[in-house]
Design goal:
about 450 residues; alpha/beta; 7-stranded mixed sheet; 5-stranded parallel sheet; 14 helices; binds flavin-adenine dinucleotide; binds 1,4-dihydronicotinamide adenine dinucleotide
Length: about 450
């Protein structure tokens, strides 16, 4: 039996960041991980492999659609799927090994196996019981099940199966027009599949600023993705190589069937807390199956903390990382703080979609007086040169004080551009503060400045 200051269960972005930060702050730290490799969902079967496939398939799209126009002639590349899978895997391996290296560098012990918490102060891994002053649960999430839909990870798949299909399907049906459905649907569309997205609601990407969501759907439709909205999936049926998706249109209850080679079920994720022994600990949970924590990430059991997808809040890697870092600092006696209103979110399609802070719908609901500054990438020289003029930046600012309340971007590198607005909002900046900041020319960032100018006396290039 060994003893530690902190044992973290789970090595995803929440867990591994907490482990490294604890070690940096002088705490004797171990991290339990049952998977073969470190890094959790994000590095192994989430953010990283999906972004590798998004990148490769985007390159193909560029070659097919924009190369000739730039005077780059020749045959477009064809898809070598096994090689693309190898590229994806090597990206994953580099990253997961990187965490292993960081653990060694920071003297974090990796306790290999599945952990449970028999009582506060103890973590069981296999037959070994380890004593510890503090425990951090960072066990992440798993795909939610959909009644009537049986996942076999070959024909009916979750994101995990979708990342390693044997071949590019001819026809793919995606259930759920959320982040996973649209990112992976885009990948397979670009690689040549016919992709139909079936969504329960009447809009895609629920919760997103409605104007952006509408534009996003228009752009994805232009790229060839088909959408069936307001449709409740009833069940799927599979034979050896195909599936049928039965759905009902909510507006008239009419029943329809779609055929597909692969069905991707992307209707959300739920916390993964199986096997931890939380019942025995009588740990308080929310009615959505999340571990309840207070504002220092402490659960209802003293000395046991929880972070990441296993607790409330957006299921995002960077949110889990921030919590991992903050809980470590709290345990070490510091006073960390996370502003949950300033967690950006990004969809890595082309174009990217990014947002932070309030949507227009949220501000309306709050009855808040606000102004809107918008700027189209059509007025941005860099974007036009790069065939990326479709899309816009939208800044929402308080009508009286000009303080920035939210920003929504659909366009080139939106996932990078959003961060200057995050920093500005973190410092309580006004739209004018952004507008008065010199932005290099020609950059996409100028569109952010122009949107800020649009909150005041007006943009220059529109
Ligand atoms: P996880 O990353 O899920 O890690 C939990 C780890 O705990 C796992 O490795 C698991 O094996 C381990 N574990 C569980 N129980 C035990 C146990 N009892 N003992 C030992 N180990 C255990 N987010 C983004 O911000 N950007 C993206 O681009 C993005 N892309 C995504 C793409 C896909 C396809 C998916 C599925 C998710 C994506 N996400 C993305 C979400 C992101 O992956 C999660 O928000 C993030 O991984 C949550 O981190 P976590 O540390 O809470 O848990
Ligand atoms: P999601 O919550 O983003 O989207 C699920 C979609 O499915 C919603 O539009 C919902 O209305 C729809 N839906 C639910 N039930 C349905 C039904 N019966 N029939 C048809 N549609 C139905 O969930 P998703 O895409 O599975 O992603 C899970 C989590 O992973 C998200 O919370 C996201 O934060 C995270 N993620 C983040 C990424 C990023 O940051 N780029 C990338 C991928 C995942």
């Amino acid at each position: 039996m060994s003893s530690y200051d902190v044992i973290i269960i789970g090595s995803g972005p929440g867990g591994y960041v907490a482990a490294i930060r604890c070690a940096q702050l002088g705490l004797k730290t171990a991290c339990v991980e049952g998977r073969e490799t470190l890094g959790g969902t994000c590095l192994n079967i989430g953010c990283i492999p999906s972004k590798a496939l998004l990148h490769a398939s985007h390159m193909l799209h560029e070659a097919e659609h924009n190369f000739a126009e730039m005077g780059l002639k020749g045959k477009s590349p064809s898809v070598d799927w096994p090689q693309m899978q190898k590229y994806k895997q090597s990206t994953v391996d580099t990253n997961t090994k990187g965490i292993e290296f960081l653990f060694k560098k920071n003297k974090v012990d990796w306790l290999k196996g599945w952990g449970s918490v028999p009582e506060a102060g103890k973590v069981k891994v296999g037959d070994d019981i380890h004593e510890t002053k503090h425990i951090i649960i960072a066990t992440g999430s798993e795909p939610s099940a959909l009644p009537g839909v049986e996942v076999d990870e070959k024909i009916v798949v979750t994101s995990t199966g979708a990342l390693e299909l044997g071949k590019v399907p001819k026809k793919m049906v995606v259930i759920g027009a959320g982040v996973i459905g649209l990112e992976l649907g885009s990948v397979y569309k670009r690689l040549g599949a016919e992709v139909t997205v079936v969504e329960f609601l009447d809009t895609i990407t629920p919760g997103m600023d409605a104007e952006i969501s509408k534009q996003f759907k228009r752009m994805l439709s232009k790229q060839g993705l088909e959408f069936i909205l307001g449709a409740a999936v009833q069940k799927t049926e599979t034979n050896k190589s195909k599936a049928k998706v039965h759905y009902k249109l909510r507006k008239d209850d009419s029943e329809h069937v779609l055929e597909a080679d692969v069905v991707l079920v992307a209707t959300g994720r739920k916390p993964y807390v199986d096997g931890l022994g939380l019942d025995t600990l009588d740990m308080a949970m929310t009615d959505r199956g999340q571990i309840q924590v207070n504002d220092t990430w402490q659960t209802s059991v003293k000395g046991v903390y929880a972070v990441g997808d296993a607790i409330e809040g957006p299921m995002l890697a960077h949110k889990a990382e921030d919590e991992g870092m903050a809980v470590a600092e709290h345990i070490a006696g510091q006073h960390p703080h996370i502003d949950y209103n300033l967690i950006p979110s990004v969809i890595y399609t082309h174009p990217e979609v990014a947002n932070v802070g309030a949507t227009e719908e949220m501000l309306k609901k709050e009855g808040r007086e606000y102004k809107v500054g918008k700027f189209s990438f059509m007025g941005n020289a860099r974007a036009k040169a790069n065939f990326s003029g479709d899309g816009f930046v939208k800044i929402l600012a308080d009508k009286k004080t000009d303080r920035i309340l939210g920003c929504h971007i659909i366009g080139p590198s939106a996932g990078e551009l959003i961060h200057e607005v995050c920093v500005a909002m973190e410092f309580g900046a006004s739209a004018q503060d952004l507008a008065m900041t010199c932005h290099a020319h020609p950059t996409y960032s100028e569109a952010v400045r122009e949107a800020a100018l649009a909150c005041g006396d007006g943009p220059i290039h529109m």
